[in-house]
């Protein structure tokens, strides 16, 4: 759209500086070749005893979802494979982390 | 390519794990030396797993690929390097510009890593290396002599053997950790999370907003934009997009309420940044860990039969003034291959512990470890509490005091203004002096 419609330089400074992007749309910009095997698994029983749950905020892909019983759900399908979650995790054995099988997982194009 | 004696006993002379800048350079150098080389990559193509917040400084490529700038897939040549100190409503930019950096041989370039890494891997293949993609290495084990030589993969019957394994498997290097080379691998203070958005903008808008012409590019490094998390921010120009992101110390992120993408949104909304990114649409969001611990947090660099390089060895200078990684990976990969090839030519004795010792001393003689050693205190200084959370306000308030006209109030002298601003900031003069001295010693 920009090729024909450059941003208006007179745009009021109070206008939104960028189009709002939902997390779903944000992650939809990234290509993932999803494997049938989860490369990261959680032991939710360890998560239940964890007061910090640092993974929830730290995961840049927002893949950790606390459950009502104090446990944790994890969606491996949109994982950047960055390693942040196991690094910040306090719970011994809570996160089993490995790389996806070859040819699967995230595939960046413009980063 | 000459066939070496080693190939009779093993599948390859050298197996390189990971086709990033370190791995592809190692494979390129080793293949050119006539060794049989297998380069294993877990992505469908080299670079597909990689992102950076960054600039590629190409001097290290000059001797490897003459006139590389005529063919490397770069986005823009950086001619403008800004260091920005900001508070939520203020900013001070030290804006260095060089026309010379826009001409060959250039200083640094922005690039998409999937493009750049694939290009470098192509050179390794052209030199004779065998590139195997879509293959994840699951472990490296020792043979009966105690040397690391068997590389297991997730392919059926996927074990491969080599005389030397060069592990360039990235910041999470499970090869280095499994080999016991990384005693402090779990120290979250030594790692940062980099997260960025690549945002589409037309060329003309980028050139107008950043004051660039043609293929000139800008690199803005920012401090004071990461809330209660030590780290920083960045803005890079690509040809028809810009990259905006943050770098966050993991130990702080683990205790923060701030999410990476929210901090990026706040940075984009900053009064200094908003006019640069206005109307730009998200093309790709990405994140990656960065080994920023510096010299003192580095792992052991190998074991008999095994050398590690690139991010796997924490070759990444997060020194505030300098933010470099790809060039260190290339330099590290080159040294790894040169040492491995020389060791192979000496026989079994050449690829044992002495190979790792040779590797280390070679790195110490070049920028790869010399820079890290010289600036070993820089990462700690840059991420220290006062630099991160207090001085941005002090510096901006000081400049505010210098440039604000308070007529009819007469202007204070600069010294008086400094003391007044420092007092207001709550910082102790003793601490300011200590930090000044520490900075002088760190960068001197």
Jot down its keywords.
heterodimer; A: 111 residues; alpha+beta; Alpha-Beta Plaits; two-stranded antiparallel ribbon; two-stranded antiparallel sheet; 19% helix; disordered N terminus; B: 444 residues; FAD/NAD(P)-binding domain; D-Amino Acid Oxidase, Chain A, domain 2; 3 domains; nine-stranded mixed β-sheet; eight-stranded mixed β-sheet; 15 helices; globular
Could you explain the architecture of this structure?
The complex is a heterodimer of chains A (111) and B (444). Chain A has 111 residues and is α+β, with helices and mostly antiparallel strands. Chain A is built from four helices and six strands; from the N terminus they run αββααββαββ. Helix content of chain A is 19%, strand content 16%. In chain A, the strands form three sheets. Chain A has a two-stranded antiparallel ribbon. In chain A, β3 and β4 form a beta hairpin. Chain A starts with 22 loop residues before the first helix and ends with a strand. The N terminus of chain A is likely disordered. Chain B folds into three domains: 223 residues, FAD/NAD(P)-binding domain, CATH 3.50.50.60; 104 residues, D-Amino Acid Oxidase, Chain A, domain 2, CATH 3.30.9.90; 63 residues, no CATH class. In chain B, strands 3, 4, 5, 6, 11, 12, 13, 14 and 15 form a nine-stranded mixed beta sheet that branches. In chain B, strands 1, 2, 7, 8, 9, 10, 16 and 17 form an eight-stranded mixed beta sheet that branches. A two-stranded antiparallel ribbon of chain B has the order 18-19. In chain B, β12 and β13 form a beta hairpin. The longest helix of chain B is centred in the C-terminal third of the chain and has 20 residues. Chain B is globular and about 90 Å long. Chains A and B meet through α1, α3, α4 and β6 of A and β11, α6, α7 and β15 of B.
